[in-house]
């Protein structure tokens, strides 16, 4: 990366807030489920059910918060979602049974989805001359923060006491509150209400909804590293179990080092669609290499898996950069928050169905399932340029009507 810090003050404030927030996220991503199952002693099935309920509850909140950010000011809405998330997370220490757990996790997950949508107008407004680089920089910062949070969470997991886990939860809440406080130093973005727009304009934009669905399918790739590969490595290969941590480390290092560079030349919706296409091909190659690791000697299986993770991560870089650019480029500035709230639905659905789909195809079915998943990614990537051209045609058709109305 050419620089360690963004050029402008507002970009640095956003990056600092994002870094503190993701350190807290890393704490809970690593040990959150263990807190509820090992410290609170909730059954794993109840924890899974509660997280699933929270995921579906949060789907609509991102759209609503994004619309509110467009109309009332993104900085205040984003800061408010962080405060709510901090309070809900702190409430985990009081969740000693199923329904209090469901209530707390629904509020926290909903606030997270709302915050992601409300942050989008800020990223767009302060993106600078090269917004694609800034978005790539934020993703690299996210990986650094989550990695540090994961290291800190290792202490709580090692100690394993209720007090240690509660300190972890409170540390997570403090991180969210601190991230909100940092936003005080960010200049506000004035809302730009447009009276002639339909109230939920993003939900009427069929090409954008189609692109959201494509991104949701492609986003299942994030679960390949965290769900499918660990289960496959243990059940179907002779590779050593410690390689699971090795694959995550390789992925994290590549994303931190190269996300900005991968995003640099993706500066239009067409370029973003091309990145989707390349990502789909990379995921197909990666899935094919993973399938070949079954039955191979230990050294060959390990080599194939590491190579597959490298190829997969290159695809992940292209997918992230393409998704950033397409989602922003096709969203009108006056409704950035609402549009990005809609776009987040794809990732939320991938979060909900991705693990089950990958386990059914790649683990239960076995080697053929990997080829099916890879082909699904490749076909999704090929469809992205068609979706972008559809969106541009619709925008061109609507332009004369907008000029007439004006």
Describe the structure.
- It is a single chain.
- This protein is mainly α and 406 residues long.
- The protein has two domains: 9-185, MFS general substrate transporter like domains (Growth Hormone, Chain: A, Up-down Bundle); 201-405, MFS general substrate transporter like domains (Growth Hormone, Chain: A, Up-down Bundle), CATH 1.20.1250.20.
- 81% of the residues lie in helices and 0% in strands.
- It is built from 14 helices and no strands.
- It has helices at residues 9-39, 44-57, 59-72, 74-90, 98-125, 131-159, 162-182, 206-218, 221-236, 243-263, 269-292, 298-329, 336-365, 367-405.
- It is globular and about 60 Å long.
Sum up the structure in keywords.
single chain, 406 residues, mainly alpha, Growth Hormone, Chain: A, 2 domains, globular, disordered C terminus
Explain briefly what this protein structure is.
By secondary structure, the chain is mostly helical. The protein contains 14 helices and no strands.
Strand percent estimate: under 5%
Termini, distance in Å? Answer: 44 Å
Portion in helices: over 70%
Count of spatially separate domains: 2
Fourth-tier CATH superfamily name of the largest domain: MFS general substrate transporter like domains
The best one-word shape is globular
Number of helices: 14
Regarding quaternary structure, how should these chains be classified?
Answer: single chain
Nearest-angstrom radius of gyration? 21 Å
Mean pLDDT figure: 88
* Number of extended strands: 0
Which secondary structure elements does this structure contain, and how are they paired or packed?
Elements: H1 9-39, H2 44-57, H3 59-72, H4 74-90, H5 98-125, H6 131-159, H7 162-182, H8 206-218, H9 221-236, H10 243-263, H11 269-292, H12 298-329, H13 336-365, H14 367-405
Helix pairs in contact: 1-6, 1-7, 2-5, 3-4, 3-5, 3-13, 4-5, 4-7, 5-13, 6-7, 6-10, 8-12, 8-13, 8-14, 9-10, 9-12, 9-13, 10-12, 11-12, 11-14, 13-14
């Amino acid at each position: 990366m050419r620089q360690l810090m963004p050029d402008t003050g507002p970009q640095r404030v956003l990056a600092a807030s994002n870094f503190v927030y993701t350190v807290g996220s890393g704490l809970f991503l690593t040990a959150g489920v263990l807190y509820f199952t090992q410290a609170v002693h909730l059954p794993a099935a109840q924890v899974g059910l509660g997280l699933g309920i929270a995921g579906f509850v949060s789907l609509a909140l991102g759209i609503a918060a994004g619309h509110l950010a467009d109309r009332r000011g993104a900085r205040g809405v984003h800061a408010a979602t962080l405060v709510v998330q901090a309070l809900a997370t702190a409430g985990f220490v009081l969740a000693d049974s199923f329904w209090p757990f469901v209530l707390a996790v629904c509020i926290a997950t909903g606030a997270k989805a709302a915050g992601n949508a409300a942050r989008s107008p800020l990223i767009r407004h302060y993106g600078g001359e090269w917004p694609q680089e800034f978005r790539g920089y934020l993703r690299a910062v996210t990986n650094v923060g989550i990695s540090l949070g994961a290291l800190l969470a290792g202490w709580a997991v090692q100690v394993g006491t209720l007090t240690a886990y509660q300190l972890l939860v409170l540390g997570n809440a403090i991180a969210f509150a601190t991230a909100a406080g940092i936003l005080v130093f960010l200049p506000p973005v004035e809302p730009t209400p447009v009276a002639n727009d339909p109230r939920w304009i993003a939900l009427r934009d069929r090409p954008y909804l189609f692109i959201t669905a494509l991104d949701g399918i492609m986003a299942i790739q994030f679960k390949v590293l965290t769900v499918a590969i660990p289960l496959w490595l243990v059940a179907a290969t002779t590779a050593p179990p410690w390689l699971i941590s090795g694959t995550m480390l390789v992925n994290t290092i590549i994303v931190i080092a190269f996300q900005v560079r991968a995003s640099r030349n993706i500066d239009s919706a067409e370029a973003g669609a091309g990145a989707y296409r390349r990502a789909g091909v990379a995921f197909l190659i990666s899935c094919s290499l993973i399938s070949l690791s079954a039955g191979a000697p230990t050294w060959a299986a390990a080599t194939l898996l590491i190579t597959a993770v490298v190829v997969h991560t290159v695809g992940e870089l292209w997918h992230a950069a393409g998704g950033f650019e397409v989602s922003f480029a096709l969203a009108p500035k006056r409704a950035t928050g609402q549009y990005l709230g809609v776009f987040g639905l794809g990732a939320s659905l991938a979060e909900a169905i991705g693990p089950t789909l990958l386990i059914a195809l790649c683990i239960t079915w076995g080697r053929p399932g990997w080829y099916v998943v890879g082909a699904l990614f490749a076909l999704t990537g090929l469809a992205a340029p068609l979706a972008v051209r559809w969106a541009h045609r619709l925008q061109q058709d609507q332009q004369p009507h907008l000029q007439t109305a004006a």
